[in-house]
Amino acid sequence: MTFLKKYGLSILLVLLLLVVWEIGARLYGKPFILPSPLQIVDRLWELRSVLFVGHLPSTSLIMLIGLLLSLVFGVGLSIWMHKSDIVRKAFFPLLIASQTIPIIALAPIFVLWFGYSLWSKIVVTVLITFFPITVNTFDGLRSADIHLKETLQAMGATKRQIFYKVELPSALPHFYSGLKVAVTLSVIGAAIGEWLGADKGLGYFSRRMMTQFDGAGVFAPIVLLSLTGIMLFLLVAWLEKITMKWRNIK
């Protein structure tokens, strides 16, 4: 009952959109351009062995490695910028500048540098997921209550104790917000990298189906990518809930 109360309207809206899409696609009558949802589901089932065994693991590996690298370097850089004004002034403008260049323009350069190996796709994924993790964590560290920090300093607390007792808990909600954005963007990064240069993966398979004018085949891996992103988002939300019980997240 709680689930329906919370997500009932969203589910109803999605079902309504699917019905409209189904009717519109049937009336249009050109499945190689606009397949219906049922046709996409049928094609996804037909291609299940190819997609789930041959391509989904490759895309998932790119996403996970890219997210892991973004977490390590993003959190590390945010803490470093928080501790040093010189580092903040040096790196923060570069972070902003990195997001002004279209990823689609940089991806071919990474293919040129790294070839069609896994790393060209990982670099694209890192570039697109690094920013939200770093900026949100940095903002969280800076949002710590200054009065509480001054009180602890007056009581003789060290900088390390203040960091772990005040600044880190203050940064956690912001960190999880950035991570939620990053996990969904990792799907986009992996797909873009595979679309421009790969021999396997969901993005590559979608591009291959496009050359064969298989509309349902183009949408099938896209649906799988979307479901993967949703699952990763829900996983992060679950981790947030169990690690931040003190925040009383509902």
H/E element string? HHHHHHHHHH
The quaternary structure here is single chain
Largest sheet: none
What is the top-level CATH class?
A: Mainly Alpha
The coarse silhouette is globular
Mean pLDDT: 86
The number of domains is 1
What's the total count of β strands? 0
Architecture (CATH level 2) name: Orthogonal Bundle
Q: How helix-rich are the residues, as a percent range?
A: over 70%
The portion of residues forming beta strands comes to under 5%
CATH fold-level assignment? MetI-like fold
CATH superfamily: MetI-like
Spans of at least 5 consecutive residues with low confidence: none
Briefly note the structural class of the backbone: mainly alpha
Give the N-to-C terminal Cα separation. Answer: 15 Å
Gyration radius (Cα, Å) is: 22 Å
Quickly count the helices: 10
Pfam families: BPD_transp_1 (PF00528)
Subcellular location: Cell membrane
Protein name: Hydroxymethylpyrimidine transport system permease protein
Transmembrane segments: 61-80, 92-116, 122-141, 178-198, 218-239
Explain this structure.
- This protein has 250 residues and is an all-alpha fold.
- It has a single domain (58-245), classed as MetI-like fold, CATH 1.10.3720.10.
- It has helices at residues 2-28, 37-46, 48-83, 85-98, 103-114, 118-142, 146-154, 159-196, 202-211, 215-243.
- The longest helix has 38 residues, at 159-196.
- It comes from Siminovitchia thermophila.
- Residues 56-236 form the ABC transmembrane type-1 domain.
- It is a multi-pass membrane protein.
